[in-house]
Amino acid sequence: xxxxxxxxxxxxxxxxxxxxxxxxxxxxxxxxxxxxxxxxxxxxxxxxxxxxxxxxxxxxxxxxxxxxxxxxxxxxxxxxxxxxxxxxxxxxxxxxxxxxxxxxxxxxxxxxxxxxxxxxxxxxxxxxxxxxxxxxxxxxxxxxxxxxxxxxxxxxxxxxxxxxxxxxxxxxxxxxxxxxxxxxxxxxxxxxxxxxxxxxxxxxxxxxxxxxxxxxxxxxxxxxxxxxxxxxxxxxxxxxxxxxxxxxxxxxxxxxxx
Length: 258
What we know:
Elements: E1 5-10, E2 12-13, E3 25-26, H1 28-40, E4 45-46, H2 48-55, E5 65-72, H3 75-88, E6 92-96, H4 106-109, H5 121-129, E7 133-136, H6 149-167, E8 173-175, H7 183-192, E9 196-198, E10 217-218, H8 225-234, H9 243-256
Parallel strand pairs: 1-5, 1-10, 2-3, 4-5, 5-6, 6-7, 8-9
Helix pairs in contact: 1-3, 6-7
């Protein structure tokens, strides 16, 4: 089980403003504890580039490790997460919405969640200068399978071009909004020239994984350090005190062909 990489997914690193968004808000103190755990317990922390280099055949598979990603580009990622990442020297990727930079999370507020500001151009550039990889999360956060082929390519290709123009360098990684995709969305990501795309399917990534459907584990607002450690160990979004027993029982059954 050493050839597996886990990709973590965060949204907002801040105290929740309502019960509706609590799931998406990792408390700053918990985030700091989680990153400290990664940095001090011998876990190999990977960048997405290390994973995609291996999948492209440019490097050997990095073995077991953990990568950190953020979706949407909330200003709180800059304020609360960046200092922690810098302090512990943890590489990360932040997936930004090219046409919502400096705006608000309208795709969430329209559903009754609190309005939050997204990073400005200056913050985005400062984050990139600090060594955080900037990836694309489309232009406006649509549900890609609901768009026609032209609209999909506008969202997927257009966001890459705009971010590259702002940053002055390649934007090689993509994440599907809501984790939703179809065959044409995947094809459009390939056509746009991205090297990888992240889904929200849970589980580990190995050398045979589809690099345009990378798996990720979401860190929820209510996750304690115990939950976090269990997620690292088992590669599951939802864990409980009974999960390890079920996990190992399933592995034994698989080996026995039951």
